[in-house]
């Protein structure tokens, strides 16, 4: 590599490197560090994401139900090849194929996890090419659907930058089709029910981590671990502290161990 890769992440409450909580950028950051690739981070404020994406000529890779574009991050720019990619799974595939040395993001394995629910998913999920790794692509979609169905537990804990918080909240309200930010509040019996569903969902996922751990393949991490780990990063920064403690302890502590084991790949460059 002649030049550093450039990674565009979502800036939350300052300092951004301490409050970064967006799932898909976390997938990319973990993958970059896992591959030991040099990169720099460009932090983008939530209201600026659409303009930044357009300025880089990176089309939206997701759409809302009404057909409008969902402009989000990450974006990765590789100055060495002039490639620009705007989806976390596509980025991981690119990193593995363009820079195959070192840790393997996609070792062969069975990823038999399927999530189904009647609950509405307000945030559009990625529909990316499988890149030659169909097991991982399906796992990515199913894990995203599973966590997104329960993301209501986390929304009000998002660490917005005070300077742009009201604008960011208004955009969330618009996307979700609710009347105000307070509509996202989930409390009392409703929260207990959703939390129980979250615990049960994680129970199904925990069955895949049946070996000696902490990773799916034991002591060797791969991109499937990073997918789950990215969601755990979001949960750790947005759930109330007592609820995050419970998540860490559920199902024999599987997800607490996974989160901690991935800390080595969580550094911000």
TrEMBL record:
Residues 12-103 form the GST N-terminal domain. Gene3D superfamilies: 1.20.1050.10, Glutaredoxin (3.40.30.10). InterPro entries: Glutathione-S-Trfase_C_sf (IPR036282), Glutathione_S-Trfase_N (IPR004045), GST_UstS-like_C (IPR054416), Thioredoxin-like_sf (IPR036249). This is GST N-terminal domain-containing protein. It comes from Penicillium egyptiacum.
């Amino acid at each position: 590599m002649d030049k550093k890769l450039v990674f565009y992440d979502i800036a939350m409450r300052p300092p951004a490197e301490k409050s970064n909580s967006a799932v898909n950028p976390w997938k990319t950051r973990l993958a970059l560090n896992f591959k030991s690739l040099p990169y720099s981070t460009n932090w983008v404020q939530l209201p600026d994401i659409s303009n930044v994406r357009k300025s880089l000529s990176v089309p939206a890779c997701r759409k809302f139900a009404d057909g409008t574009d969902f402009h989000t991050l990450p974006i990765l720019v590789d100055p060495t090849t002039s490639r620009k990619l705007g989806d976390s799974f596509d980025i991981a595939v690119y990193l593995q194929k363009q820079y195959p040395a070192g840790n393997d993001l996609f070792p062969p394995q069975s990823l038999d996890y399927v999530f189904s629910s009647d609950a509405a998913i307000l945030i559009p999920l990625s529909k990316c090419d499988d890149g030659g790794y169909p097991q991982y692509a399906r796992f990515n979609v199913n894990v995203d659907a599973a966590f997104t169905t329960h993301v209501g537990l986390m929304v009000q804990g998002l660490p917005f930058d005070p300077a742009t918080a009201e604008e960011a909240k208004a955009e969330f309200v618009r996307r979700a089709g609710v009347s105000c930010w307070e509509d996202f509040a989930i409390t009392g019996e409703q929260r207990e029910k959703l939390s129980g569903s979250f615990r049960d969902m994680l129970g199904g996922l925990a069955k895949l981590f049946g070996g000696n751990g902490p990773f799916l393949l034991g002591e060797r991490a791969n991109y499937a671990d990073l997918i789950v780990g990215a969601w755990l990063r979001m949960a750790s920064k947005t759930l109330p502290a007592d609820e995050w403690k419970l998540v860490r302890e559920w199902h024999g502590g599987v997800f607490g161990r996974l989160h901690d084991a991935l800390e080595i790949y969580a550094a911000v460059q």
